[in-house]
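Sequence in, structure out.
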Amino acid sequence: MSDANEPAGPVEPERTSGGGAEERRVRVVLVDDHRMFRTGVQAEIGQTERTGVEVVGEAADVDQAVSVITATRPEVVLLDVHLPGGGGVEVLRRCAPLMADAERPVRFLALSVSDAAEDVIGVIRGGARGYVTKTITGSDLVDSVFRVQEGDAVFSPRLAGFVLDAFASTDAPPVDEDLDRLTQREREVLRLIARGYAYKEIAKQLFISVKTVESHVSAVLRKLQLSNRHELTRWATARRLV
């Protein structure tokens, strides 16, 4: 005999097929070359009161990012600006067809430690829908993801001014072909070298090894056809990169 209080069969949770009661979800790919940061972002997202953001893929460099984004077709990509293989701008360039898809567009939100104007403007020109710095709280990041998924533009407060100034200007400087030869990471190292930072200080600030800093400096000198850091500093100063 069955218990009178026992239901006649298994009871499934009530689901909706597409109404207001259904939880909104956004599928996200997280692109950053620091595994610990990616882990931290996922933890922050998981601890927020607002749910619905699902990380469906991760990548640590440009090639991985393009592969994962193409395979998973997320609604939003959280994209670091400085990545091995060409930086966030290169990811945007190679994913342009996915951003242009009218039915299932992949939208990009830059999430970076850098607040340099050229980094902000570069990724926005590349097609990103917004730019926030890594000081953002977990709840604000989740809110930003939903807003970008809906088609809004999202910026950390002071960064919006960079974009407004850049796109409102009628006398914007021409493209610097020399500067365009450098990757985003090489530009960051260049700025810090020009500001007088030692290799160890640069390594600590960018979370990379001293050997990697040396490799970036050598690449910058080679691409710009300069001989030493003093020439590099003069070059950067002349272009107001310091």
